[in-house]
Amino acid sequence: MRLLLVVNTSASSVTARARVVIHKALSADHEVVIKETNRRGHAARLAQGAAADGLDAVVVLGGDGTLNEAANGLAGSPTALAVLPGGSTNVFARTIGMANDPIEATSQLLSALAAGSVERVGLGQANARYFLFHAGIGFDAAVVAGVEKLASLKRYAGPALFLGEAMFTWAYGYERHHPAFSVTSDAGPVIDDGYFAVCLNTDPYTYLGNRPVSLARGTSLDTPLALVVLRKLTLRVLLPAAVAALGEGLANTGRRHTSVLGRVGEATVKGYRPVPYQVDGDYVAEAEHIELRWAPGVLSLVLPNNPLRVAPPRL
């Protein structure tokens, strides 16, 4: 097969040794061109070029942001996306069952390529940007924006950086006394008091160490989106929601100030002021109007035929 290996050398887990080992392993059975990303949006352009040249797959060694860019470059084309974990959290790689070690994941990838394990899967879309696993609107996007300002610390601080930034943003960096937006969808009533929303294409939302943070269990690449909206940002709402997400996940079964909508095909977020949003952990912008939709079968994805599933620790 003809492959493009896209490497984000700035990603948290990418080392020179891993890059050499992975390139050599892939080149043993495939024709491989390797290119490094050097600026924001570069991976999308490299992926578009690979699709235009008719390559079979683009293999991404990097974090979720680099994966997101490549997916946006490949959406709608027959060229497949293949995933190797190189970031600090690697949400999407772990969600589809890849090992969190890039060398071990390369072995899985080679087996999948040999078996032809490629499927067309659905993506979410927030305005013009596709997302692989989630789009966050409001509070968590403000947290992501803060983390991106401290990007040089991600390699060393990991989850602690996100938790610290979340606490700082909650205390000082986000308006939590007045609702930020309303949500209209094809899956439920209008929600007019949103502070924080997550639109999920897969579950979990993220990982805290080896523990998945689950918001809408059962959401997958083969199903429409799920939409979770928090309608308060008080500790009385956030702490029980966090505990539930670390256990069996949130469910709209009478939990006050939390709405969970399943099988969402389309939704519209209207901000009462400019609202930040992010896709796959990559900050996008502030907007007063965000269109969310499910795009089924828009991406070819190499899936491991021997997926690793990390069971969450029992509470």
In short:
This protein has nine helices and 16 strands. The chain has helices at about 15-25, 40-50, 65-75, 90-95, 100-115, 140-150, 155, 160-175, 235-245, and strands spanning about 1-5, 30-35, 55-60, 80-85, 120-125, 130, 135-140, 180-185, 190-195, 195-200, 205-210, 210-215, 225-230, 260-265, 265-280, 280-300.
Detailed description of the structure:
It is a single chain. Helices cover 30% and strands 36% of the residues. The chain folds into 2 domains: 2-116, Probable inorganic polyphosphate/atp-NAD kinase, domain 1 (Rossmann fold), CATH 3.40.50; 129-296, Tumour Suppressor Smad4, CATH 2.60.200.40. Strands 1, 2, 3, 4, 5, 6, 7, 8, 9, 10, 13, 14, 15 and 16 form a 14-stranded mixed beta sheet that branches. Strands 11-12 form a two-stranded antiparallel sheet. The N and C termini lie far apart (45 Å). It has helices at 16-27, 42-52, 64-74, 91-95, 102-115, 139-148, 154-157, 159-173, 235-245; strands at residues 2-7, 31-36, 57-62, 80-85, 118-126, 129-131, 134-138, 181-185, 188-194, 196-200, 206-208, 211-213, 225-230, 258-264, 266-279, 282-302. With 315 residues, the protein is an alpha+beta fold.
